[in-house]
């Protein structure tokens, strides 16, 4: 019974605290047409302190989305355009000799911002990618002999273009695993496309004013951590991830030869965190199976390795996640 009271009290607190989510979504809707899923994913990353990898053809408002989000939150934003000749120092910063002071001074790079857009991350060589990933994973950067902490909140949104293969360096599996979500963005609908044309030929995009602060986001993260996850939901999350490793145990023998490796424990952790943030966005103090299903594709699609057999049969990791979600018993 006490649990019910706690949940009720938690629900009320979340109802009060999550009002800024409505303002953020409304602000994003002013500038971004459609792309509801992209906006939700950005909020999930923001609220659960996770980084996001976006994949989509050019021109689908990937850059515009993160720029708008940073304007809605009174926070620093920087954009790094990744190119094959980029060096790690171009991202993290370097030591510069000052003749006036007669000593080396640290010049911080563009990564020191609350929101960092790593544009076309697969265009940069491995050295640069790993410099960015140290900042994402450890929340710190080493320049010379000094280590600097990243500002808080700190969100990296990396984009990659799926159609160009020339002059790109695909992200290794272990690095892709560091991204909490991999979001695949699709074209807008016909109605949305007409609205985009109308807005863009009609003049400038609406001016965005901040609706919340970085401090408020950090406070919201604390409350997101309190969102209740029942043991049955934990079991459900573990079952979904285990089904990517041992599909035959869940009556999915046909997937065994299609998966070369399944999700790591990071997959389970991120599935729980993302489901929590999704429940918060929906103004609920507890996670339901629907929340887990809503985020499962984004959390798992880049964490399942495909065999040659799967690629030959044109089976994608999307298909595998869908089959698992439809098969694993819902609590």
Word description of this protein:
This protein is α/β, with parallel strands linked by helices and 331 residues long. Helix content is 47%, strand content 16%. It has 14 helices and 13 strands. It is globular and about 70 Å long.
Provide a quick synopsis of the model.
This protein has helices spanning 2-17, 19-31, 36-47, 62-72, 88-92, 126-138, 173-176, 190-201, 214-224, 231-245, 265-281, 289-300, 308-312, 317-327, and strands at residues 52-55, 73-74, 77-81, 93-98, 103-108, 115-119, 140-143, 146-149, 155-160, 181-184, 212-213, 259-261, 305-306. With 331 residues, it is of the alpha/beta class. Strands 3-6-9-1-10 form a 5-stranded parallel β-sheet. A two-stranded parallel sheet has the order 2-11.
What is the count of structural domains? 2
Oligomer: single chain
The ordered string of helix (H) and strand (E) elements is HHHEHEEHEEEHEEEHEHEHHEHHEHH
> Major β-sheet, in short?
5 strands, parallel
At the fold tier of CATH, the topology name of the largest domain is: Rossmann fold
Give the number of helices. 14
CATH superfamily of the largest domain: P-loop containing nucleotide triphosphate hydrolases
The strands making up the biggest β-sheet line up spatially as 3-6-9-1-10
Number of strands: 13
Strand content: 15-25%
| Rg of Cα set | 21 Å
Class computed from helices, strands and strand pairing: alpha/beta
| Residue share in helix | 40-55%
Mean pLDDT equals 86
CATH architecture tag of the largest domain: 3-Layer(aba) Sandwich
Distance between the termini: 21 Å
The CATH class of the largest domain turns out to be Alpha Beta
